[in-house]
C-alpha cells in the first residue's frame, strides 16, 4: 500500500458568514483520503463511524479506490460529531461542540494488508491513538506526516510531543505553531518545533498561504485569491491529502519535490473552500486540477534581471 491515512470520519455542523449546514459528512480522514485519491490508486484509511453513517459516502470513498477495510462501523453507536462557527474573516473559528461518540473507545485496528504502507498520514486525532498506529505498523514508512490541532495541545501535550518526536513532517496552522513553541515569530517557532523531532514543518496560514521549513531552507506558497470562500472546513486536511498524495505518487521526498507538493496541496485546498464540506472535492476532473496548478504557477512567476534591480 502506497498511503495509509488515519483520522476522523465525522458528521459536522457548520456556520460560516455564507450559510449553515446542520449535518454533513466531514472528518480529517475523509478530506485527506478524498484529496489524495486524485494522485494515487493504492491508498487505505483507518477510522471508525457509527451505524448512522450514510452508505452513499462509503460508496463514494470506495469509488475513489480508497480501501475501506480499516473503517470500523460500530453497530448501535453514533459517528464522531464536530460543530464549528467561522468568524467573518474566515481564518479563525470557534469549536461549538465535540462529541466523541465512537471515538471514545476506538481501537485503531490495522488490517494486515495495511501494515507496511510506504507513506503514513496521521490526520487530526487523539495523539494516544496516533501513537498506537505507529506502534502497530510492521515497518517504519518512508515518510510519516502528522497533523494536529490546538485542542490536543491543551489536553494531551505529553502524548502529542511523543508523536511529534516520531514524525518526519508536521503540518499545523500559524496559531498552533505559536502555541506549541511559545514563540510569536514563525521563524523562531519553526526552529523550536523542528528541535522537537520532525525534519520538516509546514505552517498553514489560511488565506495567506503556507510555509515549508527544512533546516535553513524556507519555501512559501501563497493561497490562490478566490472570489468566494464559502467554507474553510477541511482545507488543512485537503492540503495534507494533496501534499502526501503527490509525494507518494512520485515517491520522492526531496526538498525540491516537497516544494511541488506544497503547491499541489494548496491547489487542492483552494477547491475545498469553494463549497460547503467536501462537496467540491468529491468530483474533480484532472483538467480542473491541472488548470488550478497552472494558476498557482502564474501567480508567482516573474522574471527579474538582477543587474537592473
Ligand atoms: P480542518 O478544517 O482541516 O482543520 O478540518 C476540519 C475537520 O476536522 C472537520 O471535518 C472535523 O470533523 C474534524 N475535527 C474537528 N475536531 C476534531 C478533533 N478534535 N479530532 C479530530 N478531528 C476533528
Could you characterize what this model shows?
37% of the residues lie in helices and 25% in strands. With 309 residues, it is of the alpha/beta class. It starts with a strand and ends in a 9-residue tail after the last helix. The mean pLDDT is 96. Bound molecules: adenosine monophosphate (AMP). Residues 8, 10, 12, 26-28, 82, 98, 124-125, 151, 233-237 line the site of adenosine monophosphate.
What's the CATH superfamily of the domain at 28-47 and 107-300, by name? Ribokinase
Query: What is the CATH class name of the domain at 28-47 and 107-300?
Result: Alpha Beta
The order of strands across the largest sheet is 5-4-1-8-9-10-11-12-13
Q: Which small molecules are bound?
A: adenosine monophosphate
Helix content: 25-40%
Main β-sheet: number of strands, strand sense, barrel status?
9 strands, mixed
Instruction: Give the CATH architecture of the domain at 28-47 and 107-300.
Output: 3-Layer(aba) Sandwich
Total count of strands: 13
The helix tally amounts to 11
Amino acid at each position: 500500500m502506497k498511503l495509509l491515512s488515519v483520522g476522523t470520519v465525522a458528521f459536522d455542523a457548520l456556520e460560516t458568514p455564507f450559510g449553515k449546514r446542520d449535518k454533513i459528512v466531514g472528518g480529517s480522514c475523509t478530506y485527506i483520503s478524498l484529496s489524495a485519491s486524485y494522485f494515487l490508486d493504492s491508498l487505505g484509511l483507518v477510522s471508525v463511524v457509527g451505524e448512522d453513517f450514510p452508505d452513499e459516502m462509503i460508496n463514494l470513498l470506495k469509488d475513489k479506490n480508497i480501501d475501506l477495510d480499516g473503517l470500523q462501523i460500530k453497530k448501535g453507536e453514533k459517528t464522531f460529531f464536530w460543530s464549528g462557527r467561522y468568524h467573518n474573516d474566515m481564518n479563525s473559528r470557534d469549536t461549538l461542540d465535540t462529541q466523541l461518540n465512537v471515538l471514545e473507545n476506538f481501537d485503531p485496528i490495522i488490517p494486515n494488508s495495511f501494515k507496511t504502507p510506504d507513506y503514513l498520514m496521521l490526520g487530526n486525532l487523539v495523539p494516544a491513538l496516533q501513537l498506537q498506529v505507529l506502534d502497530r505498523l510492521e515497518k517504519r514508512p518512508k515518510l510519516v506526516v502528522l497533523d494536529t490541532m490546538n485542542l490536543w495541545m491543551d489536553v494531551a501535550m505529553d502524548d502529542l510531543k511523543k508523536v511529534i518526536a516520531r514524525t518526519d513532517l508536521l503540518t499545523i496552522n500559524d496559531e498552533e505553531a505559536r502555541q506549541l513553541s511559545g514563540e510569536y515569530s514563525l521563524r523562531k517557532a519553526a526552529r523550536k518545533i523542528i528541535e522537537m523531532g520532525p525534519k520538516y514543518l509546514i505552517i498553514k496560514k489560511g488565506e495567506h498561504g503556507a510555509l515549508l521549513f527544512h533546516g535553513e531552507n524556507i519555501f512559501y506558497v501563497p493561497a490562490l485569491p478566490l472570489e468566494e470562500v464559502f467554507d474553510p472546513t477541511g482545507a488543512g486536511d485537503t492540503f495534507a491529502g494533496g501534499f502526501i498524495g503527490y509525494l507518494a505518487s512520485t515517491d520522492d521526498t526531496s526538498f525540491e519535490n516537497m516544494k511541488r507538493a506544497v503547491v499541489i496541496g494548496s491547489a487542492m485546498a483552494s477547491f475545498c473552500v469553494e463549497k460547503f464540506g467536501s462537496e467540491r472535492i468529491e468530483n474533480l476532473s484532472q483538467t480542473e486540477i491541472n488548470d488550478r496548478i497552472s494558476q498557482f504557477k502564474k501567480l508567482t512567476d516573474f522574471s527579474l534581471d538582477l543587474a537592473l534591480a
